[in-house]
Amino acid sequence: MESKQSFGAYILKRRKELGMTQKEFAEQLFVTDSAVSKWERGLAYPDITLLQNICTILQISEKELLSSAEDVEGRRVAQLARKYLRLIRNYRLIQAILYGLIALACLVGNLAGQHTLDWFWIVVAGEGMAASLTLLPSFSPPRWRGLAALGGFTGSLLLLLLVCCLYTGGDWFLVAAAWVLFGMGLVFGPYALRRLPLPPVVSGRKASLYLAGETALVLLALEINFLYCGVGAWFFVTAASVLLGVWLVFGAVFVRQLPLEGRCGLVYLTAATVLLLLVLLSSCLLTGGTWFPSAALWSVFAIALVFLPLVMGQLPWPESLRRHKALLYLGILSVWLLLCLAVDGWGVWFPLPSLPVALLCLALPWLWLGTLRYLPMGGWFRAAAAFLVTGLWAYLAPWVLDRILLASGIISDQPYSLAIRADLFCWTDPALITGNVLVLIYLGFGLAALLCLGVGLWRRAKRNH
């Protein structure tokens, strides 16, 4: 606050500018003339409780009273604000008059020309679209102007489509409306979600909400479109395929926003598998086939072959089984493979020859697991044993396969013999080339086994010293 003299001089100046006497001023404040006289002569300050009443009577702001000077900038801001509000009112009025005149002219023209109202409603709907972008935001609070314009424009566009459909005698409105809603949501959905007051449970999951909403809209549009075209039976196949495609691309975004505690990959993979089976089932039912069980089993087997280690890594295994995940992985795949073969070829090529052939093929990975994981010796010795059993399997497997085919009634023109004809110094005789290659393969496995065995012995001797 300025000095008492300047404070009193400012009160005196404002009182005289308003044409009030000291007595009139004192009566409005319910104080004595002498109190006002002391203020104006700079002998005392008024009580703080009187400041607001003094400002009201003298038509000044508290800032002007305390600084004993006119707030020119504040008055300028207030004046600009009043001008802006007046400009907004005039803007609304002018637009309302223009829209009204256009509608009135079209009303008269439609009645005069066609003696009815038909295309007039198209003009009204078009004006609604324009007004939603130019007039409606001026009536909305600043925070909601964008949403108001977006909602008004979408509603007016749907109304325009409905009017045009009725005007032309068509039946395409639902198809057009569904795709318009999908397109508007696709483009403006993120903007709307940022502005809407969402509940706390979904406010942090706007991306998932956007994806779910757009997926629902595209499915609705497809259903209406298929029904309109008379091919509704294809909807389930298409819907399942769309859901699968959306999940494969955007499912990771969804699961990351769920409280899954490190099991996002498991949930994502499970949902993708279920959707894939849904696509297969709907396709099988549509075509009237019976191949779904076989396709489902083989699809799950292929997925498990690639992703089962990821799934097993995210499951809470007991401590006693934690060290045997490889054994469980191979056991599950082996049983599932045999189940697939049984369902796919029961009574045709199962159990003979597919079951013994499958067991013969499964013997190699089981031998690898047994030697590399459970053989009670060092790593190099395990590797040597793995090379050795691989060479032995490669040597015996063709002969065993011949016996299986023979037991199944399939006779080979050239039965496999354990006695291999080979001459490593002769590579011109076609009858010897195959034997030479096999001998080199077996020698390669044997040399690899000897090399690993030698390294293991050398490392053991080095540790002992």
TrEMBL record:
Molecular function via GO: DNA binding
Domain HTH cro/C1-type: 11-65
Domain of life: Bacteria
Record has Ubl conjugation as a keyword: no
Residue stretches spanning the membrane: 93-113, 119-139, 146-169, 175-193, 209-228, 234-254, 266-289, 295-315, 327-349, 355-372, 379-396, 437-458
Keywords: DNA-binding, Membrane, Transmembrane, Transmembrane helix
Gene3D superfamilies: lambda repressor-like DNA-binding domains
Keyword Protein transport on entry: no
Name this protein carries in UniProt: Helix-turn-helix transcriptional regulator
